[in-house]
Hints:
By secondary structure, this protein is of the alpha/beta class.
Amino acid sequence: MTTLTMRAVAMILRRTAQPGMATAEKAREVMSRPAVHADPPRALRRRHRLVQDSSDGFDCWSVQPGSGPAKTAVLYLHGGGYIAGIHSAHWSLVRHVADAGHRVEVPFYGLAPRFTVEDAVPFVMARYRRLLDELGPGRVALAGDSAGGGLALAVAQQLRDGGHPAPAALGLVAPWLDLTLSNPAIATVDDPWLSAEGLREAGRAWAGSTSPRASVCSPVNGSVQGLPPIELFVGTRDLFHPDAEVLAVRCTEVGTTCRLHVEPGSVHVYPLTPTPEGRRGRRLLVSALDHHLRAA
């Protein structure tokens, strides 16, 4: 049963967040303003050691567990529709992963409309290879939520196609798998937060000169064969739920491990929400990533 807290979150999102991206025009208004990244909170700085560096013109934060240098890492890509910066809720998830003893790399991959997928994918792949060189194959997982989840899957497909060692696992929280949102089932979802029209406009900006249907933009259209194990989290009141179901089915058909965690009545990126469902989802995600990394 959906908790009262989750229902309250849904009501708040419908009144405050959804109107801001309800139309293509409003999405363009959002993109006309500079994106703002939330600074790592004090709680994270107190518990862990943070280092910031830049490469290829983009910043990246490295969060080392307070217990000392980690032998495993999670490369985490934040969500935000490819147009919004990292939020405090993302940093909270980063803290939980670091609390489990893993280094967390948080690259600020560049946002639309100034940057596109053509800028982001090479940058993220370079950061992944850098971690591989330092820690070795099987010791790095890829994770992301929403837009960052879609980017994480696209990068994993590119790594596979390029013959690079695969991540230990993929942790995908409500990934945006198709920029065009063409799945007819999406129209039946009562999402109190996301609006398809605004998202499509952001998706067009993110794709740039690349077709939005190309797998590097919409990884649900790419092959899922030969990918690492996938831990996939989504709520039923999430526009991205239908495509998450499609991804899970396609993985099963080709023998790729994909554990689909569906939370009834929960909103977009529910493991990032301050709800009982969110806390349960976070625990499952962190436990799953921990299992795959320690099994390597």
